[in-house]
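Problem statement: downstream parser choked on a complex file, so we are re-checking the raw output for the adenosine-5'-triphosphate run. The parser issue turned out to be on our end (a line-ending mismatch), but while we're here, posting the original submission so the record is complete.
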Amino acid sequence: MKNVLTIFKKEFYRVMSDRRLVFTAILLPGLAIYVMYTFIGSAIGNEYEDITEHTMIIYTENMPAEIENFLDTQEINPEFYDYNSSNHEELEAQILAGEVDMLIIFSETFEDDVDNLIVSDILIYYNPGKKYSEYTFSVIANALHSYANVIGLDRYGDSYYAFTLDSEVIMDEEKAAGQGFAMLLPMLIIMFLFSGAMSIGPDSIAGEKERGTIATLLITPVKRSEIAIGKVLSLSVISMFSATSSFIGIMLSLPNLTSGSGGTLDVFIYGISDYIYLFAVLLATVLVIVGLISVISAYAKTIKEASMLILPFYFISMALGISTMFSGEASNDLWIYFTPIYSSVNMIIAILTFDISITAFIITISTSLVYVTIFIYILNKLFQSERIMFQK
Amino acid sequence: MNTLEVSNLKKTFRLSKKQQKIEKTNIKLKVAVNDLSFTAYPGEIFGLLGPNGAGKTTCLRAISTLIKPDEGDIIVGGSSVKNDSISVRGKIGFLTSELKLEDHFTPNYLYTYFSRLHGIEEEIIEERKIVFFEKFGIEEFKEVKVGDLSTGMKQKVSIAISLVHNPDFIIFDEPTNGLDVLTARSVMDYLIELKESGKTVILSTHILSVVDKLCDRVGIIINGKMKICDTLENVLKTSPNNDLEEIFFDLVKEEELSGGVN
Ligand SMILES: Nc1ncnc2c1ncn2[C@@H]1O[C@H](COP(=O)(O)OP(=O)(O)OP(=O)(O)O)[C@@H](O)[C@H]1O
Ligand SMILES: [Mg+2]
């Protein structure tokens, strides 16, 4: 146990006393995610503002003054130009290019038709591939529908309506907000746990082989298993730091991310117990990831080879994180909670969406512990294998 | 008795595909050390002399319990590497030729770290550290990171670290490799000091002058086989001019003719 502590302290000191490593392995994940999210948030916000404040360029023919007045009452800023049929093709090209947002053609007799109960056709040209044009269409079409309703109501009174529609939203707002988190967080957490461990694991284990210090280490009376546990523990603690930093980054940037699009995600919907569950799952996940990275690093001959061999596992784990992104719901299939990493992904979602099943939680934690035990056992065997330790 | 006895040591490696390519061979097995026997005595320096790839490192690794003999055994002060490797480890100090200490740490930190792993009490660690650091002149740069030290300084630190537990048997793989004359000299002087204090010293080298100046006994190993093994005096007698270089070249030529050296 004393040896485990000695090794732990040395590995821990190695990272913590190296400003560059502290920055890349611990601070950078949090900082990167904060900057990224804030940037995305403000980009979404800017886009929204940009579209709503854009002046719509609309060509019209025979537009009744009444409709123009009606449109003026809406919260939009259109600018109307007169249509000239001899320029039609040029106008279509301009719509295609996004220079003009819409062409709207009323029949010459529109107002008379409306008065005489003749169905009149309004023809609209627009380009759904251009954001301003698309937005102009949706706003104008909406306005015209409302206008039609006003006329209908004038004509027939209440009997105009076949029925009216009322809806009452029954939604667990916290769960919906939680699903917002659940979409992105599992992937980000797995990604940052992995990259934190990846930036230090190969150096700590494959590095010993590359530098030849492994011989000096193996010649001491320290048990191979103590070396294995000491390394895994220090890597885990440091990876937890980097996970915590990403977590803080996410928490701080979420308000920036969501305010832009008008939505709100309140971070404080979770209670202490949720955080404890989350922490337990994170810890279990860190152990599995670090165990895996350690085994690969012990197998590889050099730091570079170790980093290469880890990559496929990194991508698989990311894919597992992404796979649940769109459903935003945790799986109910208990078997899933026996799968390393994937169990964590689902468990994180379950916690965030207030959907936690204690059985699944226990399975996740205990299987993770089993996996890390297996990894430490393999690591111990690898340290014992002269073929692996001293391969040419 | 603090003798070290290697008897009929044999070690075969399986060659990886990559290694086969490098050595331009399609043989899957490489006998690195073949039926090697010698004895090293306390108060003496035993020199294992051989060209590149002769099997020196393999032999020293087997003595240090890092790899297991396929055949034969090694008895270190009464303990066998085969079934009592833990007690062998307590008795030997091993310095590998490819050792590169971690750049990020200071000599002071690494000395304490490896001492602790050897289970040495804190007081004794500090006592020995002072003596060692003084002797090797490490004191002045003990708080400088290894990465910032010169090759010679690094090697001195490596030696200090391999001897933290004051072992009776000292196994040094090419200890003067890559050192300038001055540093090489101070390392050699230290090895003599160790032998005079009654330690059993084994070193490997391909530098003839090192053997000439330092060794009491010498074993010339070529292609995994011990070609000649005796006191330096007796070995030198086998040549009319008492010339170690001549003896060495003759042995290499002999092995080439028998088709052993590639
Ligand atoms: N782990 C290993 N796997 C495969 N082959 C090995 C291994 N270790 C050594 N060998 C081979 O065994 C032979 C002896 O190698 P060894 O390192 O013992 O030689 P050496 O005398 O120390 O040479 P050098 O002067 O280059 O250090 C070489 O051909 C080497 O390629
Ligand atoms: Mg060698």
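For whoever reads this later: The pocket of magnesium ion (ligand 2) is lined by residues B 56-57, 97, 173 (CB under 6 Å).
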